[in-house]
Amino acid sequence: MNYLSTRGEAPSLSFTDALIAGLAQDGGLYLPEAYPRLSEREIAGFAGLPYGAVAQAVIAPFVGNALERKALRAAIETAYASFDDAAVTPLTQIGDNLFLLELFHGPTLAFKDLAMQFLGQLMPQVFAARGKRATILAATSGDTGAAAVAAFRDAVGVDLFILYPKGRVSDVQRRQMTTVAAENVHVIAVDGTFDDAQALVKALFANKRLRDEFALSGVNSINWARLVAQAVYYFVSAVALGSPRRPVSFAVPTGNFGDVFAGWIAKRMGLPVERLVIATNANDILARALATGRYEIGAVQATQSPSMDIQVSSNFERLLFETYRRDSAAIRRLMSALRQTGGFRIASEPLAAIRGDFDAVRVGEAETVEEIARVWRETQKLIDPHTAVGVGAARAALKAKPQVPMIVLGTAHPGKFPAAVERATCIVPQLPPRLADLFSRQERFEVVANDPAGLAAYMRGRLAASKRAAS
Protein backbone atom coordinates (compact mmCIF):
# COMPACT_ATOMS: atom_id res chain seq x y z
CA MET A 1 0.00 0.00 0.00
CA ASN A 2 1.56 3.27 -1.16
CA TYR A 3 0.47 6.86 -0.53
CA LEU A 4 0.30 9.83 -2.86
CA SER A 5 0.07 13.58 -2.31
CA THR A 6 -3.10 15.52 -3.06
CA ARG A 7 -0.98 18.01 -5.00
CA GLY A 8 0.76 15.43 -7.17
CA GLU A 9 4.30 16.82 -7.03
CA ALA A 10 5.78 14.64 -4.27
CA PRO A 11 6.90 11.01 -4.57
CA SER A 12 4.57 8.25 -3.43
CA LEU A 13 5.54 6.75 -0.07
CA SER A 14 5.02 3.59 1.97
CA PHE A 15 2.84 3.70 5.08
CA THR A 16 5.82 4.18 7.40
CA ASP A 17 7.37 6.86 5.18
CA ALA A 18 4.05 8.74 5.05
CA LEU A 19 3.73 8.29 8.83
CA ILE A 20 7.09 9.96 9.38
CA ALA A 21 6.65 12.66 6.73
CA GLY A 22 3.22 13.86 7.91
CA LEU A 23 2.90 16.59 5.28
CA ALA A 24 4.06 15.95 1.70
CA GLN A 25 7.02 17.92 0.36
CA ASP A 26 4.76 19.71 -2.12
CA GLY A 27 2.48 20.93 0.70
CA GLY A 28 -0.16 18.31 -0.02
CA LEU A 29 -1.69 15.63 2.18
CA TYR A 30 -1.15 11.91 1.76
CA LEU A 31 -3.91 9.49 0.78
CA PRO A 32 -3.73 5.78 -0.10
CA GLU A 33 -3.50 4.81 -3.74
CA ALA A 34 -6.61 2.69 -3.15
CA TYR A 35 -9.00 2.02 -0.26
CA PRO A 36 -9.29 -1.53 1.08
CA ARG A 37 -12.84 -2.86 1.17
CA LEU A 38 -14.24 -4.93 4.05
CA SER A 39 -17.06 -7.36 3.29
CA GLU A 40 -20.37 -7.31 5.14
CA ARG A 41 -19.36 -10.59 6.76
CA GLU A 42 -16.07 -9.11 8.01
CA ILE A 43 -17.83 -6.03 9.41
CA ALA A 44 -20.53 -8.12 11.09
CA GLY A 45 -17.75 -10.18 12.66
CA PHE A 46 -16.60 -7.13 14.63
CA ALA A 47 -19.60 -7.53 16.97
CA GLY A 48 -18.41 -8.34 20.47
CA LEU A 49 -14.71 -8.07 19.66
CA PRO A 50 -12.36 -6.02 21.85
CA TYR A 51 -11.59 -2.56 20.51
CA GLY A 52 -7.98 -3.52 19.75
CA ALA A 53 -9.05 -6.46 17.59
CA VAL A 54 -11.25 -4.20 15.45
CA ALA A 55 -8.41 -1.68 15.22
CA GLN A 56 -6.08 -4.38 13.94
CA ALA A 57 -8.56 -5.42 11.24
CA VAL A 58 -9.23 -1.85 10.08
CA ILE A 59 -5.67 -0.49 10.19
CA ALA A 60 -3.66 -3.48 8.92
CA PRO A 61 -4.75 -3.22 5.24
CA PHE A 62 -3.47 0.36 5.13
CA VAL A 63 -0.10 -0.68 6.59
CA GLY A 64 0.49 -3.53 4.17
CA ASN A 65 3.97 -5.01 4.55
CA ALA A 66 5.52 -1.79 5.85
CA LEU A 67 5.37 -3.19 9.40
CA GLU A 68 5.31 -6.68 10.82
CA ARG A 69 1.83 -7.66 12.00
CA LYS A 70 3.29 -8.50 15.40
CA ALA A 71 4.69 -4.99 15.80
CA LEU A 72 1.40 -3.42 14.72
CA ARG A 73 -0.56 -5.58 17.15
CA ALA A 74 1.77 -4.66 20.03
CA ALA A 75 1.42 -0.94 19.26
CA ILE A 76 -2.37 -1.19 19.23
CA GLU A 77 -2.59 -3.21 22.44
CA THR A 78 -0.30 -0.83 24.33
CA ALA A 79 -2.06 2.26 22.97
CA TYR A 80 -5.49 1.34 24.31
CA ALA A 81 -4.40 -0.27 27.58
CA SER A 82 -4.32 3.17 29.25
CA PHE A 83 -8.01 3.99 28.64
CA ASP A 84 -10.22 4.06 31.73
CA ASP A 85 -13.20 2.24 30.19
CA ALA A 86 -12.96 -1.40 29.16
CA ALA A 87 -14.94 -0.65 25.99
CA VAL A 88 -12.48 2.18 25.13
CA THR A 89 -15.29 4.08 23.33
CA PRO A 90 -18.58 3.32 25.17
CA LEU A 91 -21.87 4.10 23.44
CA THR A 92 -24.90 5.43 25.33
CA GLN A 93 -28.39 6.52 24.29
CA ILE A 94 -29.40 10.13 24.92
CA GLY A 95 -32.63 10.40 22.89
CA ASP A 96 -34.91 8.76 20.33
CA ASN A 97 -32.52 7.06 17.92
CA LEU A 98 -29.83 9.43 19.21
CA PHE A 99 -26.63 8.01 20.69
CA LEU A 100 -23.45 9.42 22.23
CA LEU A 101 -20.10 7.81 21.44
CA GLU A 102 -17.80 8.71 24.35
CA LEU A 103 -14.33 9.29 22.94
CA PHE A 104 -12.86 10.91 26.04
CA HIS A 105 -11.71 8.00 28.21
CA GLY A 106 -8.04 8.28 27.27
CA PRO A 107 -5.14 9.92 29.14
CA THR A 108 -6.05 13.53 28.21
CA LEU A 109 -9.85 13.14 28.14
CA ALA A 110 -10.34 13.90 24.44
CA PHE A 111 -10.90 11.99 21.22
CA LYS A 112 -7.40 12.86 20.05
CA ASP A 113 -6.06 10.17 22.39
CA LEU A 114 -7.58 7.42 20.22
CA ALA A 115 -5.13 8.14 17.40
CA MET A 116 -2.31 9.86 19.28
CA GLN A 117 -1.64 6.99 21.68
CA PHE A 118 -1.32 4.76 18.62
CA LEU A 119 1.14 7.16 16.97
CA GLY A 120 3.02 7.47 20.25
CA GLN A 121 3.72 3.74 20.11
CA LEU A 122 4.38 3.50 16.39
CA MET A 123 6.52 6.51 15.52
CA PRO A 124 9.37 6.06 18.04
CA GLN A 125 9.56 2.43 16.93
CA VAL A 126 10.02 3.51 13.30
CA PHE A 127 12.52 6.23 14.21
CA ALA A 128 14.59 3.73 16.23
CA ALA A 129 14.58 1.17 13.43
CA ARG A 130 16.02 3.82 11.11
CA GLY A 131 18.57 5.01 13.66
CA LYS A 132 17.24 8.56 13.46
CA ARG A 133 16.22 11.27 15.89
CA ALA A 134 13.15 13.25 14.85
CA THR A 135 11.47 16.54 15.66
CA ILE A 136 7.68 16.43 15.84
CA LEU A 137 6.10 19.82 15.15
CA ALA A 138 2.36 20.34 15.51
CA ALA A 139 -0.22 23.07 16.01
CA THR A 140 -3.20 22.61 18.29
CA SER A 141 -6.52 24.28 18.92
CA GLY A 142 -6.47 22.61 22.35
CA ASP A 143 -6.76 18.84 22.46
CA THR A 144 -4.17 17.65 19.92
CA GLY A 145 -1.38 19.28 21.89
CA ALA A 146 -2.26 17.65 25.18
CA ALA A 147 -2.71 14.27 23.50
CA ALA A 148 0.66 14.57 21.75
CA VAL A 149 2.42 15.55 24.97
CA ALA A 150 0.90 12.55 26.77
CA ALA A 151 1.82 10.20 23.93
CA PHE A 152 5.40 11.36 23.28
CA ARG A 153 6.68 12.61 26.64
CA ASP A 154 10.10 11.08 27.36
CA ALA A 155 10.03 9.17 24.05
CA VAL A 156 13.57 8.19 23.07
CA GLY A 157 14.83 9.92 19.94
CA VAL A 158 11.95 12.41 19.74
CA ASP A 159 11.68 16.14 20.42
CA LEU A 160 8.13 17.50 20.48
CA PHE A 161 7.22 21.13 19.73
CA ILE A 162 3.57 22.07 20.23
CA LEU A 163 2.15 25.43 19.14
CA TYR A 164 -1.13 26.71 20.57
CA PRO A 165 -2.96 30.05 20.11
CA LYS A 166 -2.28 32.17 23.19
CA GLY A 167 -5.44 32.83 25.22
CA ARG A 168 -7.63 30.73 22.90
CA VAL A 169 -7.66 27.33 24.63
CA SER A 170 -9.30 26.39 27.93
CA ASP A 171 -7.28 26.49 31.16
CA VAL A 172 -7.43 22.72 31.44
CA GLN A 173 -6.30 22.22 27.84
CA ARG A 174 -3.39 24.62 28.34
CA ARG A 175 -2.26 23.09 31.62
CA GLN A 176 -2.39 19.56 30.22
CA MET A 177 0.34 20.74 27.84
CA THR A 178 2.35 23.15 29.94
CA THR A 179 2.64 21.22 33.22
CA VAL A 180 4.37 18.13 31.83
CA ALA A 181 7.97 18.13 33.03
CA ALA A 182 9.65 16.24 30.19
CA GLU A 183 12.90 17.41 28.64
CA ASN A 184 11.79 16.49 25.13
CA VAL A 185 8.54 18.51 25.31
CA HIS A 186 8.50 22.16 24.21
CA VAL A 187 5.20 24.05 24.42
CA ILE A 188 4.86 27.36 22.57
CA ALA A 189 2.14 30.01 22.83
CA VAL A 190 1.64 31.84 19.51
CA ASP A 191 0.29 35.36 19.31
CA GLY A 192 -2.66 34.66 17.01
CA THR A 193 -5.30 32.08 16.15
CA PHE A 194 -5.05 28.35 15.53
CA ASP A 195 -4.97 29.09 11.81
CA ASP A 196 -1.88 31.25 12.43
CA ALA A 197 -0.21 28.44 14.39
CA GLN A 198 -1.09 25.93 11.69
CA ALA A 199 0.33 28.27 9.03
CA LEU A 200 3.62 28.41 10.94
CA VAL A 201 3.82 24.63 11.01
CA LYS A 202 3.10 24.41 7.28
CA ALA A 203 5.68 27.10 6.53
CA LEU A 204 8.45 25.14 8.24
CA PHE A 205 7.41 21.89 6.56
CA ALA A 206 7.38 23.66 3.19
CA ASN A 207 10.96 24.89 3.70
CA LYS A 208 13.09 21.92 2.58
CA ARG A 209 16.21 23.26 4.28
CA LEU A 210 14.49 23.58 7.67
CA ARG A 211 12.57 20.36 7.20
CA ASP A 212 15.84 18.47 6.68
CA GLU A 213 17.75 20.38 9.37
CA PHE A 214 15.16 19.58 12.05
CA ALA A 215 14.16 16.15 10.67
CA LEU A 216 10.55 17.31 10.91
CA SER A 217 7.61 14.98 11.41
CA GLY A 218 3.96 15.84 12.08
CA VAL A 219 1.18 14.41 14.20
CA ASN A 220 -1.68 16.77 13.41
CA SER A 221 -4.58 15.26 11.48
CA ILE A 222 -2.53 16.09 8.39
CA ASN A 223 -0.83 12.77 9.27
CA TRP A 224 -2.65 9.94 7.48
CA ALA A 225 -2.09 7.46 10.32
CA ARG A 226 -4.14 9.69 12.63
CA LEU A 227 -7.16 9.44 10.35
CA VAL A 228 -7.07 5.70 9.77
CA ALA A 229 -6.82 5.14 13.53
CA GLN A 230 -9.91 7.32 14.00
CA ALA A 231 -11.88 5.34 11.41
CA VAL A 232 -11.87 2.42 13.86
CA TYR A 233 -14.47 3.82 16.23
CA TYR A 234 -16.91 4.41 13.40
CA PHE A 235 -16.91 0.66 12.79
CA VAL A 236 -17.10 -0.20 16.50
CA SER A 237 -20.09 2.04 17.20
CA ALA A 238 -21.99 1.24 14.00
CA VAL A 239 -21.70 -2.51 14.56
CA ALA A 240 -23.00 -2.04 18.12
CA LEU A 241 -26.21 -0.63 16.57
CA GLY A 242 -26.69 -3.38 14.03
CA SER A 243 -24.42 -2.57 11.08
CA PRO A 244 -23.90 -3.75 8.45
CA ARG A 245 -27.54 -4.94 8.46
CA ARG A 246 -28.73 -1.35 8.79
CA PRO A 247 -27.13 2.02 8.06
CA VAL A 248 -26.25 4.61 10.69
CA SER A 249 -25.45 8.32 10.56
CA PHE A 250 -22.85 10.32 12.47
CA ALA A 251 -22.75 13.90 13.72
CA VAL A 252 -19.20 15.12 14.21
CA PRO A 253 -18.06 18.35 15.93
CA THR A 254 -15.72 19.67 13.26
CA GLY A 255 -12.82 22.08 13.08
CA ASN A 256 -9.96 20.76 10.94
CA PHE A 257 -12.19 18.18 9.17
CA GLY A 258 -10.02 15.21 10.17
CA ASP A 259 -12.46 13.38 12.44
CA VAL A 260 -15.39 13.56 10.05
CA PHE A 261 -13.17 12.59 7.12
CA ALA A 262 -12.28 9.46 9.09
CA GLY A 263 -15.98 8.60 8.88
CA TRP A 264 -15.82 9.04 5.10
CA ILE A 265 -12.87 6.61 5.07
CA ALA A 266 -14.96 4.06 7.00
CA LYS A 267 -17.72 4.48 4.43
CA ARG A 268 -15.27 3.92 1.56
CA MET A 269 -14.17 0.73 3.31
CA GLY A 270 -17.71 -0.61 3.24
CA LEU A 271 -19.42 0.66 6.41
CA PRO A 272 -23.05 1.58 5.55
CA VAL A 273 -23.00 5.24 6.62
CA GLU A 274 -26.19 7.09 5.67
CA ARG A 275 -25.08 10.67 6.42
CA LEU A 276 -22.02 12.38 7.86
CA VAL A 277 -23.16 15.56 9.61
CA ILE A 278 -20.54 18.30 9.89
CA ALA A 279 -21.34 20.14 13.13
CA THR A 280 -19.83 23.62 13.25
CA ASN A 281 -19.92 26.47 15.72
CA ALA A 282 -19.87 30.15 14.67
CA ASN A 283 -16.72 29.40 12.64
CA ASP A 284 -18.89 27.89 9.95
CA ILE A 285 -16.77 27.90 6.80
CA LEU A 286 -17.76 24.30 6.03
CA ALA A 287 -21.49 24.92 6.49
CA ARG A 288 -21.22 27.94 4.20
CA ALA A 289 -19.21 25.97 1.64
CA LEU A 290 -21.79 23.18 1.43
CA ALA A 291 -24.67 25.67 1.25
CA THR A 292 -23.20 28.02 -1.37
CA GLY A 293 -20.34 26.16 -3.04
CA ARG A 294 -18.00 28.96 -2.02
CA TYR A 295 -15.16 28.06 0.40
CA GLU A 296 -14.13 31.41 1.83
CA ILE A 297 -12.09 32.25 4.92
CA GLY A 298 -13.67 34.59 7.45
CA ALA A 299 -12.43 36.03 10.72
CA VAL A 300 -11.94 33.45 13.47
CA GLN A 301 -14.45 33.98 16.27
CA ALA A 302 -13.59 32.94 19.83
CA THR A 303 -16.31 30.64 21.19
CA GLN A 304 -16.96 28.37 24.15
CA SER A 305 -15.96 25.43 21.91
CA PRO A 306 -12.40 26.64 21.16
CA SER A 307 -11.11 23.47 19.51
CA MET A 308 -13.47 24.26 16.63
CA ASP A 309 -12.43 27.90 16.27
CA ILE A 310 -10.87 27.27 12.88
CA GLN A 311 -11.48 28.77 9.45
CA VAL A 312 -8.96 26.82 7.34
CA SER A 313 -10.03 23.16 7.64
CA SER A 314 -6.87 21.51 6.34
CA ASN A 315 -8.29 18.02 5.80
CA PHE A 316 -11.00 19.36 3.50
CA GLU A 317 -8.27 19.26 0.84
CA ARG A 318 -8.37 15.45 1.04
CA LEU A 319 -12.10 15.39 0.31
CA LEU A 320 -11.68 17.86 -2.54
CA PHE A 321 -8.99 15.64 -4.04
CA GLU A 322 -11.32 12.65 -3.97
CA THR A 323 -14.38 14.49 -5.29
CA TYR A 324 -12.32 16.14 -8.06
CA ARG A 325 -11.51 12.58 -9.20
CA ARG A 326 -7.96 12.82 -7.85
CA ASP A 327 -7.07 15.70 -10.18
CA SER A 328 -4.00 17.06 -8.40
CA ALA A 329 -3.64 19.97 -10.84
CA ALA A 330 -7.15 21.13 -9.89
CA ILE A 331 -6.25 20.90 -6.20
CA ARG A 332 -3.12 22.96 -6.74
CA ARG A 333 -5.25 25.64 -8.42
CA LEU A 334 -7.77 25.66 -5.55
CA MET A 335 -5.07 25.86 -2.87
CA SER A 336 -3.31 28.62 -4.77
CA ALA A 337 -6.57 30.59 -4.93
CA LEU A 338 -7.06 30.04 -1.21
CA ARG A 339 -3.62 31.51 -0.47
CA GLN A 340 -3.98 34.42 -2.85
CA THR A 341 -7.62 35.45 -2.44
CA GLY A 342 -8.82 33.68 0.70
CA GLY A 343 -11.29 31.43 -1.06
CA PHE A 344 -12.41 29.45 -4.09
CA ARG A 345 -15.56 28.07 -5.68
CA ILE A 346 -16.16 24.31 -5.67
CA ALA A 347 -17.13 22.99 -9.11
CA SER A 348 -20.66 21.64 -9.49
CA GLU A 349 -19.80 17.92 -9.83
CA PRO A 350 -17.50 17.76 -6.77
CA LEU A 351 -19.98 19.84 -4.78
CA ALA A 352 -22.79 17.41 -5.64
CA ALA A 353 -20.55 14.50 -4.56
CA ILE A 354 -19.80 16.19 -1.24
CA ARG A 355 -23.48 16.91 -0.63
CA GLY A 356 -24.20 13.27 -1.44
CA ASP A 357 -22.35 12.15 1.69
CA PHE A 358 -22.33 15.17 4.00
CA ASP A 359 -24.70 17.61 5.65
CA ALA A 360 -23.48 20.65 7.57
CA VAL A 361 -25.25 22.35 10.46
CA ARG A 362 -24.20 25.52 12.29
CA VAL A 363 -24.92 25.57 16.04
CA GLY A 364 -24.58 28.97 17.70
CA GLU A 365 -23.45 29.90 21.19
CA ALA A 366 -26.92 30.12 22.74
CA GLU A 367 -27.95 26.82 21.16
CA THR A 368 -24.81 25.19 22.55
CA VAL A 369 -25.71 26.26 26.09
CA GLU A 370 -29.27 25.09 25.59
CA GLU A 371 -28.09 21.68 24.39
CA ILE A 372 -25.78 21.15 27.38
CA ALA A 373 -28.71 22.01 29.66
CA ARG A 374 -31.16 19.80 27.77
CA VAL A 375 -28.94 16.71 27.80
CA TRP A 376 -28.38 17.16 31.54
CA ARG A 377 -32.07 17.68 32.20
CA GLU A 378 -33.16 14.64 30.17
CA THR A 379 -30.34 12.17 30.86
CA GLN A 380 -28.40 13.45 33.90
CA LYS A 381 -25.30 13.35 31.69
CA LEU A 382 -22.91 16.29 31.41
CA ILE A 383 -21.45 17.04 27.99
CA ASP A 384 -18.79 19.52 26.92
CA PRO A 385 -19.57 22.39 24.51
CA HIS A 386 -18.00 20.70 21.46
CA THR A 387 -20.12 17.62 21.99
CA ALA A 388 -23.12 19.91 22.50
CA VAL A 389 -22.54 21.40 19.04
CA GLY A 390 -22.59 17.83 17.71
CA VAL A 391 -25.81 16.99 19.55
CA GLY A 392 -27.50 20.16 18.31
CA ALA A 393 -26.54 19.38 14.72
CA ALA A 394 -27.65 15.75 15.15
CA ARG A 395 -31.13 16.75 16.33
CA ALA A 396 -31.53 19.01 13.31
CA ALA A 397 -30.34 16.31 10.89
CA LEU A 398 -32.49 13.60 12.48
CA LYS A 399 -35.62 15.40 11.34
CA ALA A 400 -34.90 14.38 7.74
CA LYS A 401 -34.46 10.65 8.50
CA PRO A 402 -35.62 9.91 12.05
CA GLN A 403 -35.60 6.15 11.41
CA VAL A 404 -31.79 6.02 10.90
CA PRO A 405 -29.78 5.86 14.16
CA MET A 406 -27.66 8.97 14.70
CA ILE A 407 -24.36 8.69 16.61
CA VAL A 408 -22.83 11.89 18.00
CA LEU A 409 -19.10 11.83 18.54
CA GLY A 410 -18.52 12.96 22.13
CA THR A 411 -15.15 14.60 21.67
CA ALA A 412 -14.11 15.77 25.15
CA HIS A 413 -14.76 15.24 28.85
CA PRO A 414 -16.97 18.01 30.32
CA GLY A 415 -14.35 18.66 32.99
CA LYS A 416 -12.07 20.20 30.36
CA PHE A 417 -14.57 23.07 29.89
CA PRO A 418 -16.04 23.67 33.35
CA ALA A 419 -17.10 27.29 32.81
CA ALA A 420 -19.30 26.46 29.80
CA VAL A 421 -20.87 23.47 31.52
CA GLU A 422 -21.53 25.43 34.72
CA ARG A 423 -23.21 28.24 32.75
CA ALA A 424 -25.65 25.76 31.29
CA THR A 425 -26.29 23.49 34.28
CA CYS A 426 -25.09 25.32 37.43
CA ILE A 427 -22.89 22.25 37.99
CA VAL A 428 -19.10 22.32 37.95
CA PRO A 429 -17.89 19.11 36.27
CA GLN A 430 -14.98 17.45 38.02
CA LEU A 431 -11.82 16.11 36.46
CA PRO A 432 -10.84 12.50 37.23
CA PRO A 433 -8.77 12.06 40.43
CA ARG A 434 -5.55 11.59 38.43
CA LEU A 435 -5.86 15.24 37.32
CA ALA A 436 -7.09 16.66 40.64
CA ASP A 437 -3.83 18.58 41.20
CA LEU A 438 -3.62 19.97 37.65
CA PHE A 439 -4.01 23.60 38.74
CA SER A 440 -1.23 23.36 41.32
CA ARG A 441 1.36 22.04 38.87
CA GLN A 442 4.04 24.39 37.55
CA GLU A 443 3.62 25.55 33.96
CA ARG A 444 6.42 25.68 31.39
CA PHE A 445 5.97 27.38 28.02
CA GLU A 446 7.41 30.07 25.77
CA VAL A 447 5.64 32.86 23.89
CA VAL A 448 6.78 33.15 20.26
CA ALA A 449 5.80 35.76 17.69
CA ASN A 450 3.76 34.74 14.67
CA ASP A 451 6.85 34.47 12.46
CA PRO A 452 8.42 31.38 10.81
CA ALA A 453 12.00 32.66 11.18
CA GLY A 454 11.50 33.35 14.88
CA LEU A 455 9.99 29.91 15.44
CA ALA A 456 12.88 28.25 13.59
CA ALA A 457 15.42 30.16 15.68
CA TYR A 458 13.71 29.13 18.91
CA MET A 459 13.59 25.49 17.85
CA ARG A 460 17.23 25.54 16.80
CA GLY A 461 18.22 26.81 20.23
CA ARG A 462 16.14 24.23 22.11
CA LEU A 463 17.41 21.35 19.99
CA ALA A 464 21.03 22.46 20.49
CA ALA A 465 20.45 22.56 24.26
CA SER A 466 18.92 19.08 24.17
CA LYS A 467 21.91 17.76 22.23
CA ARG A 468 24.34 19.27 24.75
CA ALA A 469 22.40 17.77 27.64
CA ALA A 470 22.42 14.34 26.01
CA SER A 471 26.19 14.35 25.30
Question: Can you give a write-up of this model?
Answer:
The protein has 471 residues and is of the alpha/beta class. It has a single domain (1-123, 222-433), classed as Rossmann fold. It has 19 helices and 16 strands. It has helices spanning 15-21, 40-44, 51-63, 69-80, 112-129, 143-152, 171-178, 194-206, 208-214, 224-240, 258-268, 285-292, 316-323, 328-341, 348-357, 365-379, 385-398, 418-425, 452-470; strands at 2-5, 13-14, 30-32, 91-95, 98-102, 134-139, 158-165, 185-190, 216-217, 248-253, 273-280, 294-296, 343-345, 358-362, 406-410, 446-448. The strands form 4 sheets. A 6-stranded mixed sheet has the order 4-5-15-10-11-14, with helices on both faces. A 5-stranded parallel sheet has the order 9-6-7-8-16, sandwiched between helices. The chain has a 3-stranded antiparallel sheet with strand order 2-1-3, covered by helices on one side. Helix 6 links the parallel strand 6 (134-139) and strand 7 (158-165). Helix 4 crosses helix 5, helix 16 crosses helix 17 (385-398) and helix 16 packs across helix 18 (418-425). The longest helix has 19 residues, at 452-470. The radius of gyration is 21 Å and the shape is globular. The two termini are 39 Å apart.
